[in-house]
C-alpha cells in the first residue's frame, strides 16, 4: 500500500497545529472587527527575518511622549525603523505634531502618505518632499547592530533633523553612536515585548526626559 509511505501527524501535533490556526484566525478576526486600532503595537506582527522586535507598550509610550515633548507644539517627528513609536504617537489624543514613518517593510504602507519606503543601504534615496533639516526630532532604531548600518542610518538622521536625535540601539554601539551622531547614553532602559539577548539603550544629543 503506497499510503504507508505518507508521514502521518500524531494526534498531539495535529491538535497543536489546529490550535495554532485557530489562534491565527482569531487574531485576524480581531483585526477586521469593529473598533480594532490599526495603530496598536502588534497590529502588524514582527518579522524576525527583517530583524524586527517591537518595544513593550510602556517603552513605546515613553519614547513617543519624549519625542512629542522634544518636537514641541506643531513639531515634526520622523521615525526611522521605529514603527512601534510611530504607532504610539498616532494613538496620542489631541496631538499637536505631525509624524512620518520611514520603514523598509512595505506592510506599513497601510498608514498611507505618512509611510516612506526606506532602505538604510541607500540613506539619501528619499522623496523630494522630505526636505533637509525639516524635522524637529528624528527617532531611529537601526535594524542591525553593525557600524555599517549605524553609519548609513546616521546619514539619513543628520539629513532630516533640525538638530535633535533620539537613537535606540544596543549598548555595544555606544562608542559608534557617539562617533557618528554625537549622542550620549541615557539612564532610561528600553524594553521589548520579547526579551532580546543584547542589552538595549537610548542615546540623545539634547537635554531629554530619559535621564
TrEMBL record:
Q: What is its main location?
A: cytoplasm
Q: What molecular function does GO assign, one term?
A: protein-lysine N-methyltransferase activity
| Matches recorded under SUPFAM superfamilies | S-adenosyl-L-methionine-dependent methyltransferases
GO CC terms for this protein? cytoplasm
Is Nucleotide-binding found in the keyword set? no
Q: Which UniProt keywords apply?
A: Cytoplasm, Methyltransferase, Transferase
Cellular localisation: Cytoplasm
Which reaction does this chain catalyze?
A: L-lysyl-[protein] + 3 S-adenosyl-L-methionine = N(6),N(6),N(6)-trimethyl-L-lysyl-[protein] + 3 S-adenosyl-L-homocysteine + 3 H(+)
| PROSITE patterns recorded | N6_MTASE
InterPro entries with a match to the protein in the record: DNA_methylase_N6_adenine_CS, Efm5/EEF1AKMT1, Mlase_EEF1AKMT1/ZCCHC4, SAM-dependent_MTases_sf
| A GO biological process held by the record | methylation
What's the protein called, per UniProt?
EFMT1 methyltransferase
**Taxonomic source organism:** Polioptila caerulea
Chain's gene name: Eef1akmt1
Amino acid at each position: 500500500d503506497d499510503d504507508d509511505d505518507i508521514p502521518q501527524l500524531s494526534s498531539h501535533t495535529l491538535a497543536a497545529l489546529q490550535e495554532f490556526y485557530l489562534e491565527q484566525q482569531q487574531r485576524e478576526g480581531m483585526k477586521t472587527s469593529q473598533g480594532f486600532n490599526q495603530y496598536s503595537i502588534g497590529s502588524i506582527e514582527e518579522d524576525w527575518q527583517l530583524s524586527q522586535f517591537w518595544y513593550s507598550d510602556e517603552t513605546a509610550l515613553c519614547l513617543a511622549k519624549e519625542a512629542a515633548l522634544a518636537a514641541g507644539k506643531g513639531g515634526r517627528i520622523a521615525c526611522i525603523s521605529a514603527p512601534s513609536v510611530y504607532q504610539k504617537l498616532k494613538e496620542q489624543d489631541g496631538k499637536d505634531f505631525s509624524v512620518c514613518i520611514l520603514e523598509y517593510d512595505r506592510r506599513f504602507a497601510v498608514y498611507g502618505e505618512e509611510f516612506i519606503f526606506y532602505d538604510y543601504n541607500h540613506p539619501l534615496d528619499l522623496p523630494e518632499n522630505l526636505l533637509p533639516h525639516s524635522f524637529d526630532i528624528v527617532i531611529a532604531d537601526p535594524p542591525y547592530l553593525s557600524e555599517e548600518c549605524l553609519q548609513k542610518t546616521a546619514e539619513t538622521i543628520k539629513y532630516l533633523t533640525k538638530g535633535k536625535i533620539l537613537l535606540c540601539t544596543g549598548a555595544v554601539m555606544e562608542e559608534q553612536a557617539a562617533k557618528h551622531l554625537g549622542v550620549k547614553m541615557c539612564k532610561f532602559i528600553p524594553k521589548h515585548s520579547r526579551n532580546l539577548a543584547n542589552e538595549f539603550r537610548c542615546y540623545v544629543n539634547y537635554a531629554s526626559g530619559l535621564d
